[in-house]
Amino acid sequence: MVKRVTSFDVAKRAGVSRSVVSAVLNGTPGIGVSEEKRKMVLEVIRELNYQVDAQARGMKTGRSHCLAAYGNVSNSLFLQVLEGMQEACASHGYHVLLYPSGSSYEQRIEGLLDLFLQRRIDGIIALDRPHKVNEDWVQAVNKHQIPYVSVEGYPHHDGVPSVLMDYEESVHRALNFMWKRTKRIPAYLELHHQNPLGWGDNERRCAYERWMTSHGMEPVVYSEEDGIWSERIVYWKQWTEKFMASSCSLLTNWSRGAVYVSRAAQLLGIQVGKDIQLMACDNSERINQHLFPAITSMEVPYREMGLLAAQRLLEYVEGQRAVEDKSGIWVKALLEDRESVGLTT
Q: What b/e readout covers 136-169, taking b as 16+ CB neighbours within 10 angstroms?
């Protein structure tokens, strides 16, 4: 077997102490290293192909340099959060561990807690459902001082730091944009599943109603259950025909709603962006820009939210921020002006 190169070998070849090698590798405070010595150590490290023993470093520092990401990889929102998280981790020399989301809350608490106590992870980021608060998890996080940041979860909870989007501001900005561009009364299409609406969708609807009232207009809200497009083509064609009689513009809570109306309109020979003006409150499935005409939308910056969550988590892990600081992080939506509002020919 080939003998493993150690920091002792590096120190001996470079003619320095092991503490100097450690200072070069880890930026150890209190140990001054001249530029000449630093270059010499780095040259020997390359020459000997020395690799830091991650397990030994973890035992010494108490860190694994690994953060856990909890979420469903089939969820496009989580994948975008993961993109931002990976960017932040890569720039700080951390790895990302994907933890399965199919487990129960009890299994999640036990599994993630064990990983943290075993020093296999340094902290956790999760894409949470804001209307599903679990107090047992909050208590476990705070009891064991686990660095934890939620994306979109726990919006009104002071026990967990969250990265949240300002949904009210995004809807008001969308409505201002549509009103200025079209001068048509904006109606609101709210898609939903059988489950109760989440915090974000409730925020959107309330923001729409407040904007309409403040502008002296009566809110026009359509609430429709989501379903498979191929099974509901006739329904959406009929819905779009009826909507056309209102002469309103249309804002949808989900991009899927705007897609349904856009497809139905084109099947009916109605020109999107001219005959019917519509805009989406998100682009979660990243399809708005690929349609024709492309759909204008207020995009939830999930990638940025993942990046900010990871940066906050690293502040906790590296001692730059106290874990007792549970202050939230707020972000704004991105307004993407495409073709479905005010298309000219």
A: ebbebbeeeebbbbbbbbbbebeebbbbbbebee
Q: Evaluate whether 194 touches 226 at the Cβ level (below 8 Å).
A: no
Instruction: Using the CB atoms, write b or e for 53-85: b if 16+ within 10 Å.
Output: eeeebbeeeebbbbbbbbbeeeeebbbbbbebb
Q: Are 338 and 296 in contact (CB under 8 A)?
A: yes
Distance CA 186, CA 192 (A): 19
Q: What is the DSSP letter of 16?
A: S
| Distance of alpha carbon 197 from the chain centroid | 19
pTM attached to this predicted model: 0.81
> Whose CA is closest to 171, among 92, 64, 254?
254
Task: Give 50's DSSP letter.
Answer: -
Of the pLDDT bands very low, low, confident and very high (cuts 50, 70, 90), residue 345 is: very low
Q: Which residue has the higher pLDDT, 155 or 105?
A: 155
Q: Of 23, 61, 57, 60, whose CA–CA distance to 40 is shortest?
A: 23
Tokens 């809570």 sit on residue: 253
Q: Would you say 297 and 269 are in contact if contact means Cβ atoms under 8 Å apart? A: no
Phi and psi, residue 150, nearest 5°: -100, 140
- 31 with 19: CB under 8 angstroms? yes
DSSP β-ladder status, 95-99 and 123-127? unpaired
